[in-house]
Amino acid sequence: MKDYIEERAVEIANYIIDCNATVRQTAKKFGISKSTVHKDVTDRLMQVNPTLAARARVVLDVNKSERHIRGGQATREKYMGKLKACEQTVDKN
């Protein structure tokens, strides 16, 4: 494996652990795809630093178990914003 890939995998894992970041947030931060983040943390990092890989995996597993809750909250906020906009429009008329 190339050195820069190993370094990137370690940086990604440290970012995930320090910031409690999701795969999507990490991908955006590093300018890479979600698939690359996942591959770096689950496969490549295991070869370089298994302990760090396990710690990052714990964070990713927690995020995965909570994602349906975050999705529901985002949807609720989206429609509450639309409801407020409709109420303001009705009040003006």
Task: Provide keyphrases for this structure.
89% helix; 93 residues; elongated
Q: What's the helix and strand layout?
A:
Elements: H1 3-19, H2 23-30, H3 34-48, H4 50-92
Helix pairs in contact: 1-3, 1-4, 2-3, 3-4
Summarize the model shown.
By secondary structure, the protein is mainly alpha-helical.
Structure commentary:
By secondary structure, the chain is mainly α. It contains four helices and no strands. Helix 2 crosses helix 3 (34-48) and helix 3 runs antiparallel to helix 4 (50-92). It is elongated and about 65 Å long.
Helix and strand sequence: HHHH
Structural class: mainly alpha
Mean pLDDT: 86
Strand content: under 5%
**What ranges have pLDDT less than 50 throughout 5 or more consecutive residues?**
none
User: How many beta-strand segments?
Assistant: 0
Q: Which descriptor suits the 3D outline?
A: elongated
Q: Total number of helical segments?
A: 4
Mind telling me the C-alpha Rg? Answer: 19 Å
The major pleated sheet works out as: none
- Helix percentage: over 70%
Measured distance between first and last alpha carbons: 65 Å
